[in-house]
Each structure stands twice: as structure tokens, then as C-alpha cells.
From TrEMBL:
PANTHER family: D,D-DIPEPTIDE TRANSPORT ATP-BINDING PROTEIN DDPF-RELATED, TRANSPORT ATP-BINDING PROTEIN. This is Oligopeptide/dipeptide ABC transporter ATP-binding protein. GO terms for molecular function: ATP binding. Belongs to the ABC transporter superfamily. InterPro entries: AAA+_ATPase (IPR003593), ABC_transp_ATP-bind (IPR050319), ABC_transporter-like_ATP-bd (IPR003439), ABC_transporter-like_CS (IPR017871), Oligopep_ABC_C (IPR013563). Keywords: ATP-binding, Nucleotide-binding, Transport. It comes from the Bacteria. Residues 5-246 form the ABC transporter domain.
Length: 314
């Protein structure tokens, strides 16, 4: 599989008020991440770790302060030409607020197609509805007349209207009931097969990521601390943070539900020296508090930890 998207040393910083002072924090800090064409990559981590900011930078909704995004190996300019903008689309957690409440489904789907003739728009709109498992009877509906699952299907259809290569889904099923969420996940799988779509699936829900994704990247305080094939990361997590996250997932083979409470992550304004995870890490040793960990690689799986894959049972 060829690489379609790459984040290269991608950094997104912004200013925040810290008491009397304005200070800059790096929500995303030197991230390296690639997506192969047609794969679904899960991006996980606690809220505030920079997942959404990274997603927005890949879509082009947030400008990087350093580093860059490449599409098919070509660096994307800071101001994306429309042809490039079209190729990466985003869907959000709450389709209720991302859809215009006054517009009908037909108007919402026609909006990205305004350069086309009326006939083309009508044809494409029907095709999009069929792709997301809805029918023509929904064309005249407004968002409030649709269920949460139907609204998310419309948001997906709207994102697909311009035939993108990449979909960034930010907590796309988090606000849906389990059965509805399952149906939307099945839809994403079908669309990936049918359109050879590449998906960056941002989620705090590891059970969902395990079911859906080919690969997983784990973020902590702006950095990717572990990345690899999903089956491999779930079976042999190499980073203590990933192990803590997995321990909190209820499943048949992992019964230690919520075994360890980590407490709140440190503020990005006051990043710990050395390994950023060390104040909360059950495996931390003295050097973790002073030296940034190296990235250790093994068969397409990488882990940023001084003790990667060691101390499995800490
Ligand atoms: Fe824990 Fe040290 Fe590894 Fe950081 S480098 S995750 S503190 S063991
Ligand atoms: Mg978020």
C-alpha cells in the first residue's frame, strides 16, 4: 500500500492565558504519522492530548506552526488550493451542530456541488444518499426531523460529495447509542472498501478502535508515543501509557476494568521534563525524569519509551 498522507514533524502551537501571562503551548508537538491508501488508522488518547488538533491540521482547518503535511508525497502549501482541500474531508462528533438546521438534506448535499448542473447535482445527491444507506424520502428533511444516526450519515454523505481520498472522523460515533454507532462503523468499513477511502479515526474508545482500525497511534500530551498494527498494539502494547489505557477497556480477555486510575494529565503549560508521562507512569525510573525517551522500532511498531516492551506487568 502506498502512503497517501504523512504528517512530518507536524507542530501546532497556540497562545493561551496563564494567569497574567500569554504563553504558547504546543497542542501537537513534532508528530510523525503516515496513512497508507485505503487503511483506517485509529488515533487514541485522553481528551486534550492533541488528537483533534492533529486531525484539523491534516484536514487544513488549522495551520501548523512547524512541520508539514504531505499528500501522495507532495507537500501541501499553507494555503491549500481547492483541488487539495477537496481531497481531505472531516466529520465531527455532533452532526446536529455541524449541519445547518435550516437546510434540507437536498440543500446540504448540493452545497459542495454548486459548480455542477442541476441534473448532475440531482444525480449525485441520490448516489450519495444510497452510499450512506438512506433514500430519496430523506431529501426534503431538515436535521431535526432525522435521528442522530441519520444525521451522521448525512454528514458523511456531505463529506463524500467532493469525492475525497481521506476522511478524518473526530469522535464520529461518540454521541450515538451503541447499536446506531455500530451501524455507522459498519458504514465506514463499507465505504472504505467501496471507495478505497483512507480514514483517520479519532476516538477515545479503544473497544471501537480495536474493532474498526488496521493500525493505531496513541497520543500523549501532543506526541505520538506508540504506533503500530492494531492487532499488534492491542496484543503487545510496548508503552506503559497504552497498557494503562487498555487496562481501562472492559472486554472478555481483560477483566481489570478501570484497574488503575491515572488522575489528571499535567497541563500542557507545565510539561514535565524527560518523558512527559513520567509523573503518572507506573514503570518510571530515575532517568525517565531527565532524559526524553528514544523511539524504539520493531516490525512496523514503534514506541517512545526507555523501557519499551519491558516491564510488561508493572
Ligand atoms: Fe514510563 Fe519511563 Fe517509559 Fe516514560 S520512558 S513511559 S516514564 S518507563
Ligand atoms: Mg477532541
Amino acid at each position: 500500500m502506498s502512503e497517501l498522507v504523512r504528517a512530518e514533524q507536524l507542530t501546532v502551537a497556540y497562545a493561551v492565558q496563564d494567569g497574567l501571562f500569554r504563553r504558547r503551548i504546543r497542542a501537537v508537538d513534532g508528530v510523525e504519522l503516515g496513512l497508507a491508501r485505503g487503511e483506517i488508522l485509529g488515533l487514541v488518547g485522553e481528551s486534550g492530548c492533541g488528537k483533534s488538533t492533529l486531525g484539523r491540521a491534516i484536514v487544513g482547518l488549522t495551520l501548523p506552526s512547524a512541520g508539514r503535511v504531505l499528500l501522495d508525497g507532495v507537500p501541501v502549501p499553507r494555503r491549500r488550493p481547492p483541488g487539495m482541500r477537496r481531497r481531505v474531508q472531516m466529520i465531527y462528533q455532533d452532526p446536529g451542530s455541524s449541519l445547518d438546521p435550516l437546510r434540507t438534506v437536498a440543500q446540504t448535499l448540493a452545497e459542495p456541488l454548486r459548480k455542477h448542473s442541476a441534473d448532475q447535482v440531482a444525480h449525485r445527491t441520490r448516489e450519495l444518499l444510497e452510499m450512506v444507506g438512506l433514500g430519496e424520502e430523506h431529501l426534503r428533511a431538515r436535521p431535526r426531523e432525522l435521528s442522530g444516526g441519520q444525521r451522521q450519515r448525512i454528514a458523511i454523505a456531505r463529506a463524500l460529495a467532493v469525492a475525497p481520498d481521506v476522511l478524518v472522523a473526530d469522535e464520529a460515533v461518540a454521541s450515538l447509542d451503541a447499536s446506531v454507532a455500530g451501524a455507522v462503523l459498519n458504514l465506514l468499513c463499507e465505504l472504505r472498501e467501496r471507495l478505497n477511502l483512507t480514514v483517520l479515526f479519532i476516538s477515545h474508545d479503544l473497544a471501537v478502535v480495536r474493532r474498526l482500525c488496521d493500525r493505531v497511534a496513541v497520543m500523549y500530551l501532543g506526541r505520538v508515543v506508540e504506533e503500530g498494527p492494531a492487532a499488534e498494539v492491542f496484543a503487545h502494547p510496548g508503552h506503559p501509557y497504552t497498557r494503562v489505557l487498555l487496562d481501562a477497556v472492559p472486554s472478555a480477555d481483560r477483566r481489570r476494568l478501570g484497574a488503575r486510575a491515572l488522575g489528571e494529565p499535567p497541563s500542557p503549560l507545565h510539561l514535565p521534563p524527560g518523558c512527559r508521562f513520567h509523573p503518572r507512569c507506573p514503570a518510571a525510573a530515575t532517568r525517565c525524569g531527565t532524559a526524553a525517551p528514544p523511539e524504539v522500532r520493531r516490525d512496523g511498531h514503534r514506541v517512545a519509551c526507555h523501557f519499551a516492551w519491558q516491564a510488561q506487568e508493572v
